[in-house]
Amino acid sequence: MERFMKHKPPTFTGGYNPEGAVNWLEEVEIIFEAMRCSEENKVTLGAYVLREEGGSQSLVEEC
């Protein structure tokens, strides 16, 4: 998680914003590629940054 957060991933808090969602996804995919994340960790880390308030960092493993 710490390594992922060092890349300063964008947050997407929802609402109707298709362009913002696409931009968010593209930015996060660049980070995943640079980190060589597994598919499982992509889901976990992506879900983390989607949440407005964050979550329990201790439950998320680093790629």
TrEMBL record:
Domain of life per record:
Eukaryota
Q: What is this protein called?
A: Cellular nucleic acid-binding protein
Which species does the entry assign this protein to?
Trifolium medium
